[in-house]
Amino acid sequence: MTSADIARFARCRILVIGDVMLDHFIWGGVRRISPEAPVPVVEVTKETWYPGGAANVARNVAPFGAKASIMGRVGNDSQAQRLRELMHEEGVNCEPLLVSETVPTISKARVIARQQQIVRVDRETIQKLTDAELGEVENRLKALAKNLDAIIIEDYGKGFITEPLLRLITRIATEAKLLVTVDPSPRNPIRWSGVNLVKPNRSEAFAAAGIEDLHDTTPPEQNEQMLQVGSLLLEKWDVPMILITLGEQGMMLFQRGAAPHHIPTRAREVFDVSGAGDTAIAVLTMALASGMKPQQAAEAANYASGIVVGKLGTATLTPEELLQACATAPAA
């Protein structure tokens, strides 16, 4: 990948649709155990907030100069206000967001001491879109479509992504000739027909295919189970491409009419896998939307994931980091 390849990302116009969240990190140290219960007492030193879920995907698009917008549901609350402020700082358009008077903004608070997560506190109400909300999404999406190149569907199983919403998205995307990629949730068994690519991780892929993962350490391109899963999902989901992320084994790209393609991992050191999938789908979609071939786009996503797992917290990467990683990587 060259600087010219990455420069083309900046011309992309990407809408991320899905479950948006606010990530809250509480940092501190532990010097004693509570006298009230056998739990550590965390002495807080700082607190940070980041866009989470689908919002983190949009946040990963913005540093490349691409026009990033986010569509999801937030509450009429302070968490939504903070999320909007964070997204504005990142250069992400929040106008497509829906505001609910009854469903609060999803938030996750993580308490971390000495780089170790102690506990996570989630605030969420899982509720599917109402007919009125679905109509609102349709109106907004029709207005946005003419100024888009691609849509990323980011499903965390929190209620925003539904079968009726998918059909609405694919109909409008087909009419507008938009690329559609998906990061699926195992808690939401949707048939993804009508999209261009689905990117499950290994456990999601095996679960969706109904095959028990024996965790065979055979190289993925020689693993009969893996090859079967990819073939089954191409048919089950009725999609042209599937990219399965495999952690330390990299990624496996399955395409109709082509041999499966394995991409070895590029991660050098792993500190935190939080958000690696978000980075992968963001870079993958920009690469495809900018004209890269599927194998090249998957390679770009793999490099990007290898960078962010070496960072702590919900991280993003810069074009310069991606270019350097590609330039200094050993030959495959």
How many helical elements? Answer: 10
Instruction: Indicate the proportion of strand residues.
Output: 25-35%
Report strand order across the widest sheet.
4-1-9-10-11-12-13-14
CATH architecture: 3-Layer(aba) Sandwich
- Sequence of secondary-structure elements: HEEEHEEHEEEHEHEEHHEEEHHH
Structural class: alpha/beta
Q: Sheet bearing the most strands, described? A: 8 strands, mixed
Shape, principal axes of CA atoms? globular
**Rounded radius of gyration (Å):** 20 Å
Helix content: 25-40%
Mean pLDDT: 91
What would you say this structure looks like, in words?
There is one protein chain. By secondary structure, the chain is an alpha/beta fold. It is built from 10 helices and 14 strands. It has helices spanning 3-7, 54-61, 78-90, 131-145, 163-176, 202-209, 224-236, 276-289, 294-308, 319-328, and strands at residues 13-18, 20-33, 40-53, 67-71, 73-75, 98-100, 106-113, 116-123, 150-154, 179-183, 197-198, 241-245, 251-255, 261-263. Helix 4 (131-145) packs parallel to helix 5 and helix 8 packs antiparallel against helix 9 (294-308). The mean pLDDT is 91.
Key attributes of the depicted protein:
332 residues, alpha/beta, UDP-N-acetylmuramoyl-L-alanine:D-glutamate ligase, eight-stranded mixed β-sheet
